[in-house]
Design brief:
With 391 residues, the protein is mainly alpha-helical. The chain has 15 helices and 6 strands. The protein has a domain at 49-281. It has helices at residues 10-14, 25-48, 51-76, 84-99, 113-137, 141-160, 162-165, 198-222, 224-234, 236-241, 246-272, 282-295, 300-319, 337-355, 359-371, and strands spanning 171-172, 177-178, 181-182, 190-191, 194-195, 274-275. Helix 4 crosses helix 11 (246-272). The protein is globular. It starts with 9 loop residues before the first helix and ends in a 20-residue tail after the last helix. It comes from Actinomadura vinacea.
């Protein structure tokens, strides 16, 4: 994204947005210390946590990267998209086709996994660029309905392009390899007496990609592009008056969001090790919207928390279905864990929108402000006014 999205006027480039107040030095130090502690904990998890929880983390990080793209598009730029699942599918099947080999009717190009991942991301961005002229002319619910057609079109293509997608049965995904190391269970790597198979090694790969994606998204939202997005979200007429090229800015937001979805799709392929068309339906797009609404629109940390909650809840409920009331496992008579999870975070979305539209981020900020002692009122010495002489 180039810097000519916003004209070089000082008022547009230098004004700090109201939703990103300046933080004091102690607050920044506390934030950096908390981030360092969280990172240390995440780096140590593969040595102490069961593979089941690590696999949930892989699914959550793959979804979080896609949610970051929708945070930029909808949370910052105000462009509603219900077609996010389509771009995730492009990244998933793009990687599977580019890195896979020929297996019967299913074809593949056999490219190196790293090159396949990069090309799949660019392919998702190219699809977003092709849709950007429509996105540049629409906004709000009209753009959401137009992007909804991408999901149905994509699902039809996934079912019928058998040489590329494998049809209804899907296709296998080649394991990722980098520098001669393959991220699979065939690896004989042993660290501190802990065997590092596919889940343990992919954990660090996913963690690195998620951290980089989060930092890039945060810098975009805090820089000139982010200010242009927010100006356009608040008022397109006002943004144009401030020097924002609205059409180009909409296209840039859609392309960037599509590339994030493509990266999330590549991670989804590596986490599942198989691509199935039924996963990339309208329900997945609704899940992405739930992630960013629960976490807080326009918040990168909120997207991470929301993605973790939405992805982990049905899996955890399914695992402990026998110990929970009113919830049954898959295939049993009663309320399945996946349906129960939809009820839970659907109700939470309604509660959040009614009570705290800013999501979990705003809730945490409100609790922190309440616990903070009130500052003593400042007493200022009145300036003496000289007495007026009477004639």
């Amino acid at each position: 994204m180039s810097d000519d999205t916003v004209a070089p006027s000082r008022s547009a480039a230098e004004t700090r947005p109201s939703d990103a107040p300046a933080r004091s030095l102690p607050q920044r130090l506390r934030g950096a210390a908390l981030a360092a502690v969280v990172m240390v904990v995440l780096l140590a998890l593969p040595f102490y946590v069961d593979a089941f929880w690590l696999r949930i983390g892989l699914f959550a990080m793959a979804a979080a990267v896609g949610a970051l793209g929708l945070t930029i598009l909808f949370g910052a730029a105000g462009q509603l998209s219900l077609g996010h699942a389509f771009f995730v599918a492009v990244g998933t099947y793009g990687y599977a086709f580019l890195s896979g080999d020929d297996h019967g009717e299913v074809k593949g190009l056999g490219l190196p996994p790293l090159a396949a991942a990069v090309l799949a991301t660019l392919l998702a961005g190219a699809c977003g660029l092709l849709f950007s002229p429509i996105a540049g002319r629409l906004r709000g619910i009209y753009l959401g309905i137009a992007s909804l057609g991408l999901v149905f079109l994509g699902h039809h293509l996934l079912l019928n392009l058998r040489p590329v997608t494998g049809g209804y049965d899907g296709r296998n995904v080649e394991p990722f390899s980098l520098g001669g190391f393959t991220f699979s269970d065939a690896s004989d790597l042993l660290l501190f007496r802990v065997p590092f198979g596919a889940v343990e090694s992919l954990w660090y790969l996913f963690l690195g990609v998620t951290v980089v994606a989060t930092l890039v998204a945060r810098n975009v939202l805090r820089g000139r592009p982010g200010r242009a997005f927010r100006l356009m979200r608040d008022s397109e007429v006002g943004a144009a008056a401030m020097g924002v090229r609205v059409g180009r800015t909409k296209a840039a937001a859609f392309v960037l969001s599509s590339m994030y979805a493509g990266v999330g799709g590549v991670l989804t392929a590596l986490a599942f090790q198989r691509a199935v068309p039924d996963y990339f339906d309208l329900h997945l797009s609704i899940d992405f919207l739930a992630m960013i609404i629960l976490g807080g629109l326009g918040s990168t940390s909120g997207a991470l928390v929301g993605a973790t909650f939405v992805i982990a809840l049905p899996i955890v409920l399914s695992r402990y279905a026998d110990a929970l009331p009113l919830v049954v496992g898959p295939g049993q008579d009663g309320l399945e864990a996946s349906i129960a999870a939809q009820f839970v975070y659907g109700a939470l979305v309604v509660v959040v929108m009614l009570t705290q539209p800013g999501g979990l981020r705003a809730m945490v900020t409100a609790v922190r402000d309440r616990r903070r002692p009130a500052a003593a009122p400042r007493t200022s010495t009145p300036t003496p006014v000289p007495a007026r002489r009477t004639p």
